[in-house]
Amino acid sequence: MAVVVKIPTQLRAAAGGEAETVLDGATVQEVLDGLFERFEELRTRISDDDGSLRRFVNVYLAGEDIRFLDGLQTPVSDGAELTILPAVAGG
Amino acid sequence: MAVSHLQCKECKAEYPLEALYVCDQCFGPLEVVYDHDRSTLDVGELRRRIQGGPQNIWRYADFLPLAGGPPGPSGRLASRVGLPAGCTPLIRADRLAERLGLREVWVKNDAANPTHSFKDRVVSVAVTRARELGFETIACASTGNLANSVAAHGAALGMDSYVFIPADLEEQKILATGIYGTTLVGVEGSYDDVNRLCTELCAERDWAFVNINLRPYYAEGSKTLAFEIAEQLGWEIPDRCVVPVASGSLFTKIAKGFEEWIELGLLDGGGPSSIGSSAPRLPRMNGAQAEGCSPVASAFAAGNEVCRPVKPSTIAKSLAIGNPADGPYALDLARRTGGSVDAVTDEEIRAGIKLLAETTGVFTETAGGVTTAVLSKLAARGDIDPDERVVLVITGEGLKTLDAVRGAFETHTIAPTIEAFEAGVPEGTAV
């Protein structure tokens, strides 16, 4: 499955300046693993030591927070869009 | 200039005072750091300077994140600073206290701000900092009150503004935004969808999103609620504050305001329950949420350190943030001060609005109903010592959420005669 991953501005320097990249994977976890293989520096920025997402990192699949889906095990379909964003307080 | 730099709340990495809001190392939120020097501080002189300052938040300019000091020649001219926020009434609410079996309750009525909510405090600071940084356009993602405030500040300062709201927001909040001539965008989705869209848009536009890229400055404005409460209580700190929780920012920044002043020695010992102990300490902080959107209260009850996001469904739309970014900090604050985060039902919210109105003459929006209902709950549960001095923070105006009080009372319609009045209207209305 080819998935478009959108990279937030804060991480673009660690991703060769790219705003988005296309990766293969059947789940969110597999896509992120592919992202970390391509840009090793992103691994520690996004993930904790135990492999889970850092608590201020939000990941959306087609606009839906993956925590409302199956988290990192959420299946992804061909052409899907995965967006990584920092959590921001609102009001 | 007391403001020093931005710092990540998680990994403590330092950043310059620019339009940055997230740590690019760990994604933690950035916060403003000051370099107040207690050794050279003259407390008496500082208190006098504050008391002689303008009747708005700029009297606390020493504790706000502006590089150039307060805006305008003296901070007194509204036309130079936008809308004058703050200096709202702190009302002693004896009838409310009596109803709840408490001795001393105060209502901080922030509906008395220019656009009728506490958001004017944070927007004043954010917009002033945005101008210092050279922005010409302001924007926000809002649950309503922020929309009103950003649109009004844009109008007052002659800045372009873009306001993004959930499309199904209360009509009163939509009308009280569009009238200021802003570009109003109703997004089909929840506030969390609006917030996500604006976070993405923030990278594409050279705008000051007050609660995104200007967020470290914006959030500091909430400290002025603590400063005012302490100043209005005669430089004393209350024993307990009950505060609504949406993202958790207001709740944590009120505590930060008290902490900064305690650290500088600006405050005396606490209220009646602290007699005999001269060292001021943080009030017990009680957060208030609606059951239909209570990720922080749920995490508090479960003993968790992080919040699981929820899909909001509550009449308290101004608190309907299902993914509260400051949730972990709100949980920590409630626990370390001996407070709590509680949730109440929509029925309890309506009853809270009515209780506050009937006992204090203050008509609040649904968020204030949440806060009042949580105070009632804490009192009924026996969590509050009867000698405590309690401050109830009311953040918004009842006229903005009129649907919540429809059917809450009866109107006696009569013919214009004495006979009809005597036959149709019962005597005595005091409650």
Describe the structure.
The complex is a heterodimer of chains A (91) and B (431). Chain A is built from 3 helices and 5 strands. With 91 residues, chain A is α+β, with helices and mostly antiparallel strands. Chain A has a single domain, classed as Ubiquitin-like (UB roll) (Roll), CATH 3.10.20.30. A 5-stranded mixed beta sheet of chain A has the order 2-1-5-3-4, covered by helices on one side. Chain A is globular, with a radius of gyration of 12 Å. The mean pLDDT of chain A is 91. By secondary structure, chain B is an alpha/beta fold. Chain B folds into 3 domains: 34 residues; 211 residues, Rossmann fold; 101 residues, Rossmann fold, CATH 3.40.50.1100. Chain B contains 15 helices and 13 strands. In chain B, the strands form 3 sheets. Chain B has a 6-stranded mixed beta sheet with strand order 4-5-13-10-11-12, with helices on both faces. Chain B has a 4-stranded parallel beta sheet with strand order 8-7-6-9. A 3-stranded antiparallel beta sheet of chain B has the order 2-1-3. In chain B, strand 6, helix 5 and strand 7 form a beta-alpha-beta unit. In chain B, helix 9 packs across helix 10 and helix 11 packs across helix 12. Chain B is globular and about 75 Å long. About 2% of the residues of chain B have low confidence. Classes of the chains: A alpha+beta (91), B alpha/beta (431). The interface between A and B is large, with 27 and 44 residues.
Shape of chain B: globular
Mean pLDDT of chain A: 91
Please trace the helix and strand order of chain A, writing H or E for each element: EHEHHEEE
Strand order of the largest sheet of chain A: 2-1-5-3-4
Roughly how many Å apart are the termini of chain B?
52 Å
Q: Compute the gyration radius of chain A: what is it?
A: 12 Å
The CATH architecture designation of chain A is Roll
- Along the chain, the helix and strand elements of chain B come as EEEHHEHEHEHEHEHEHHEHEHHEHHEH
Strand proportion of chain B, as a percent range, falls in: 5-15%
Number of strands of chain A: 5
Number of strands of chain B: 13
Mass-distribution shape of chain A: globular
**Mean pLDDT over the full residue set of chain B:** 92
Q: Mind telling me the CATH class of chain A?
A: Alpha Beta
The interface involving the most residues is between: A-B, 27 and 44 residues
The CATH topology name of chain A reads: Ubiquitin-like (UB roll)
CATH superfamily of chain A: Beta-grasp domain
**Domain count of chain B:** 3
